[in-house]
Amino acid sequence: DAGVTQSPTHLIKTRGQQVTLRCSPKSGHDTVSWYQQALGQGPQFIFQYYEEEERQRGNFPDRFSGHQFPNYSSELNVNALLLGDSALYLCASSFSTGSEKLFFGSGTQLSVL
Amino acid sequence: AQSVAQPEDQVNVAEGNPLTVKCTYSVSGNPYLFWYVQYPNRGLQFLLKYITGDNLVKGSYGFEAEFNKSQTSFHLKKPSALVSDSALYFCAVRDDSWGKLQFGAGTQVVVTP
Question: Among B53, B12, B38, B16, which Cα is nearest to B91's?
């Protein structure tokens, strides 16, 4: 049973470009959350998707957008990249109900030059 | 609003000695508390959670945590540390069963032989 998988593992972009990160949740999970982890900091919540809709959003600008597909996989899109967007982007999946723990992927390391 | 504080950037302990990683939290309602561990270049791995019930929660790899409502603390403990416990530990809280997790800044644990 595969856990949460993310692609790509590493990515290098330049300022102003756009990037798409992908996530496949753990089998059976229907909720996907995205977190940004800057160097030396704890993960910060970006948004959560359930039933193909954004259910909750953290304090991130509209440059950050997402999508969830019918098979529960998800994408994170970031437009007009800034140097400060350089971070590890973590995807986490869970069940929609109950006090469930999150299962995290290994993340995508994004470097913006 | 919810918040988490991990007052120690790093904890150093000798192998075989007890390990404690401190966490205090603030949340408007009943807290859902979690501990995660992160190894280099990896995502977060779940250790344990507190929702309701006994104040002493047992988790993975011999870790346990004590919930103290009056002190709003949720300290992580291990009776006898191993070198392999060296990692970055995150405390996290949320105020409902499905919403965003608020993470602390993390505590680096270094266990020396």
Answer: B38
- Which of A37, A50, A111 is the mutation pick for testing B, counting most B CBs within 10 A? A37
Q: Per the omega criterion (within 30 degrees of 0), is the bond before A25 cis?
A: no
| Integer Cα distance of A110 and B95 in angstroms | 30
C-alpha span between B76 and B5 (Å, rounded): 13
Model pLDDT for residues B20-50, shown as the tens digit of each residue = 999 999 998 889 999 999 998 778 999 999 9
CB-based contact A112:A81 (threshold 8 Å): yes
Rg of chain A, C-alpha, whole Å: 13
Does B99 sit within 8 Å of A48, measured CB to CB?
yes
What pLDDT digit, counting tens, does each position of B40-96 carry? 877 899 999 998 888 999 999 999 999 999 999 999 999 999 999 999 999 999 887
Which candidate in A35, A101, A103, A111 is best for mutational testing of the B interface (most B CBs within 10 A)? A101
**Given B4, B101, B105, which is nearest A41 (Cβ)?**
B105
Q: Give the DSSP per-residue string, B58-109.
A: E-GGG-EEEEETTTTEEEEEESS--GGG-EEEEEEEESSSSSPPEE---EEE
A90/B100 Cβ within 8 A = no
Compute and round to an integer the Cα radius of gyration of chain B: 13
Which residues does chain A have within 8 Å of residue B103's beta carbon, measured at their own beta carbons?
35, 42-44
